[in-house]
Amino acid sequence: MEDTKPRAIYLQDYLPPAYLVDAVALRFELGEESTRVSSRLHCRRNPDFPGEPQALVLFGRQLFLTSLLLDGRQLQPGEYRVDEESLSIPGVPESFCLEVNTEIRPQENTSLEGLYKSSGIFCTQCEAQGFRKITYYPDRPDVMASFTTTIVAEKARYPVLLSNGNLVEQGELDGGRHFATWQDPFKKPSYLFALVAGDLVRIADSFTTASGREVQLHIYVEQRNRDKCDHAMRSLKKAMRWDEQTYGLEYDLDIYMILAVDDFNMGAMENKGLNIFNSKYVLARPDTATDADYQAIEGVIGHEYFHNWTGNRVTCRDWFQLSLKEGLTVFRDQEFSADMTSRAVKRIDDVRVLRNAQFPEDAGPMAHPVRPDSYVEINNFYTTTVYNKGAEVIRMYHTLLGAEGFRKGLQLYLERHDGQAVTTDDFLAAMAEAGGRDLGQFALWYSQAGTPVVQAQGSYDAAGRVYTLKLSQSCPPTPGQQEKRPFHIPVALGLLDLDGNDLPLQLEGETAPLGTSRVLELRAAEQTYRFVNVPSPPVPSLLRGFSAPVQLQADYTEAELAFLMAHDSDPFNRWEAGQQLASRVLLKLAADHQAGRPLQLDEAFAAAFGKTLCDSDADPALLAQALALPTETYLAEQMAVADPEAIHAAREFVRRALAEKFRHEFAAVLEASARSGPYSIEPAAVGWRSLKNLCLAYLMTLEEPSTVDHCCRQFQNGDNMTDVIAALACLVNSAGPERQQALGAFYEKWREDPLVVDKWFTLQATSKRPDTLEQVRLLMEHPAFNIRNPNKVRALVGAFCHGNPARFHDRSGAGYAFLGDRVLELDRLNPQVAARLLGALTRWRKYDGARQELMKSQLQRILAAEGLSRDVYEVASKSLA
């Protein structure tokens, strides 16, 4: 019997393409029921292909082939072969012109891959393999061609026609139709192709590059959104200037365009010259977008713009190299955001994402290296490992080589490989050459999965005034990789004296100290470092700035953590010390809850918390981060067997106990922040709002009438969405009538704004109330919910399953069954979204036996379903393997 299971693709099997495409001319006849696509390819055999190719193979899915011409001669059905995935033509000449004519139905394309229609707008999403849903083509990143695209459509319905590159011709046609022809002067792979047609308004601006060229900047949105684009345009111009100043990189076309669309699987897409964005990452106004939204828009706008060089001009050879463009560009957008806001707060936010999402991925059945060895469905590898851990790998280059060495390495990489499709090895080689370093061992970060564990032990010899630090490393087994070789790990550190001052650092054998903070390079399984001329027993500040994506196990006492929390000159490590102290307290309380012991607030922790809260000199943004308790997701990862119920009980107890103990101090912060002035997205104003709203959330756990009244006034009178949504988030968890009143008023005010309604869905999905799942089920029937829209699914279903561990992991298993139903329902509509939702079940082995069985049964039910997509099959099968 034939095995119909989806097959894996392996990096080791890579071969260059048998045929190259030098140029492609596309013509789209957009229709209301179907669209005709004509593709003319100028092809030739690839001299680098090993052996003699037997046939030209073009990829295609869900296409209706209408005709096929080779050098002007129409081929007959016996001269080619078509199946569900490809079109193959044997015996083609050395070079030839192939014309492929197909018919597609964008209006029925719920997968949102290829060409589809959203809110009356035709648009595309071709990464990773969406182009094969448009026409038959060698749809792989190492086939780079120059594209000319002609779009024909009804002018009244679709007055705006856009594609990559520069507009070279436009005109009127019979029957009320018109056309536009775009030409991209830069060769690109098909995944960077873009097309847009719709009734859109254009927000126009311009940017003058460092060399004096003027670039036109256009943002296209629906008419109702034209007043929400100012921040996106400012962010784009900031990103363009930052890339020039930081890396000397100018934009290379005459025009840069952005489209905002409501239905989109991802955040945005960097198509050359025509970026298509999820509207969530473009549209902002103070009354509709939060501070977090503003910052996310700036970061994503920057990310897609930075791809112009790191992803477009130099792209990845194959999809195993995805982090070559994504990890590198995430690092670039993180650095951009850090320069635009608070560097310390940005670093904390990035590490929080890494620990809450990527570390669990590394510890689960979907663990894979930054450069995967294999995949069944490439869409499943748009992961936090490829993006966020990939960015940490780039950051380690920066740490090891220094800012100037890294810049030289990046410049060498771009100069050497401009216009090419390359690999992570090529990037590493450029960095090693520019930095004059041997980075051979560093390459293991690309090929080994898992989160390394670094153990640190220190001792002090008073007589010799020597501090000895022993570092060791290990990495747990991951699927397919039982044994791991030592990584090359940069460990940034400092030593603090008893007064909290940084000590000069001099290693044994050095003639003089080299500053008060330095980077050690841990390369072996175990290494020992001896610091001399240390006048008193120091407290080490380890892994400053989170210099490597590792789990640090250090023998700190609670008193030392409190000391670092108060004195460390490294802001990240000051925050980290507080988080570790809070984690110890919370995990002890979770154990007390499991054992039925009464819960009591740890006095030493409370004292450290109070001292931090009353630090009037602290940056409010950093203070808000320091006072926020570790998340339930992070705490679950610290337990051998995760107990969501005990973690939730412990964390809620501590929040209430701290609110009771410091009610006056919290109230004082609220009063002080009320004088922070009119709304602004400047970092200082953002910091004050984050601190104020954190204090309000603590006080609202007591549900005292005066605080509830304050919360209601903030909800009703707030002049910005940040304050309004913070107040509503508190009221959603309250027991009084104010909850329903506020939810009803909020929806009535914002029912016509889809992105604001998404916030309304998410607040209810992440409520701590016991009836949350019941409310989520009811909201799925709400007229504002649409299961075909990824934003709506993420806002409601995703928020509940991924963002509400206490209710999702209810002992009844009802949350698991709910997710199983949604995955099967969505798999028929949008497999990408379904597979990402399913991630909430992949860590089933982390839980107790009863929950394991309930989660496993849902995975088995999903895997047994007929017609399962490759996306969902891969996640379910690997989870059960």
Considering the chains and any ligands shown, give keywords for the structure:
alpha+beta, eight-stranded mixed β-sheet, 26 helices, PepN_Ig-like_sf
3D structure, described in words:
40% of the residues lie in helices and 20% in strands. It has 881 residues and is an alpha+beta fold. Helix 15 (683-700) runs parallel beside helix 17 (721-732). It is globular and about 90 Å long. The two termini are 22 Å apart. The relative contact order is 0.06. Residues 450-554 form the Peptidase M1 alanyl aminopeptidase Ig-like fold domain. Residues 232-442 form the Peptidase M1 membrane alanine aminopeptidase domain. GO terms for molecular function: aminopeptidase activity. Belongs to the peptidase M1 family.
